[in-house]
Amino acid sequence: MRSSLATGVTRREIWAWAMFDFANSGYTTVIITAVFNAYFVAVVAEGKPWGTLAWTSTLALSYALVIVTAPLIGAYADATARKKRLLAFSTLGCVVFTVALALAGPGALALAVLFVVLSNFCFGTGENLIAAFLPELAREEALGRVSGWGWGLGYIGGLVSLGACLGYVSWAQGQGQTAAQFVPVCVLITALLFAVACAPTFLYLKERSQPQPATGPDGAWARFARTLREAGRYRDLLRFLACTVCYQAGIAAVISLAAIYADQVMGFTTQDTLLLIFIVNITASLGAVAFGWLQDRIGHRPTLALTLLGWLAMVGMVWLASGPTLFWAAANIAGLCMGASQSAGRAIVGLLAPPTRLAEFFGLWGQAVKLSAILGPMTYGLANWLSGGDHRLAMLITGSYFVAGLLILASVRLERGRRAALIG
Fold this sequence. Notes:
mainly alpha
């Protein structure tokens, strides 16, 4: 491990950084992927035909807020050396607004939409800020490995939250409780575990960046304006961000619609779905760590291409699945590729970002990821709605995003992009 870390970085500090991935993964696993999304459609939206579209539109609104603000927040964090402080504010917001989601019962659509938007906005902002620490903590040749450690530990965190919820749901169903009674408790469990597990991050992670002189009356705006003027210098980063938009759109659709697909197409119960996603988180953790090591051995681009081919295989298997066996196999392929492709993307941005502008450029990465999180689920939701509820067709259409990602990735030259980053 020590040979992978930058000078002055301790094992305790890298553990503290990775613990944020552990902490925040419970939110995406329980709220976005496994429990609250299906609850939103079936209970909050009362099973109406527009329920899936309402869910994807709610996520789209939260991601749009991240798209608008991410580079400016990043530029401000770089200029003032306040990545850690801003991370604390976004974490507090995500925890508080997640707690508020427990108030969203049957028919409380406006309340659910409001707190999903606010909590997911805070989550996305924190995700960008924690990623900006990566190039300060890992050696250049170990970015994939260290990113994989964080993402792998993150899926374990998702397992802890999901396991706690699964245990509670099993007990509650045994007591005859309905989803309207036990899902709000799952939401509270998720918020509590997030708050507790992120404590090491704020105790031990160091803010290494130094305040930089403002380039105008508003330093963040000026820095971001400079980035826009110089965009041509970072053409490989821009191409990779376009690639990110495409392949992450497919991933976002799978993550945010998985429980809904399992419920409405495969006939899974809430307990079946929780168990499926529990197992998938194990394979995702293994995939993030294994592919992180592979990424540093064979290269960033070949590793990412390999995972995108895996995603295409998964889409085909889900489309063909008429019973649980093939669907389970496809879900675990998705798990392996999910941790690997997301971790690989974070490492590549760390390679292509100028060392003095990390938060800003990871903010651009955050923009790309959140734009994809609008496009993917919205494409799925619209395809499902226009086809009269055909989830299989919607999944097949989603697969086109992985094809587009592969085509754009072929034009990215990482060595040239790294040289541009070091000059900038």
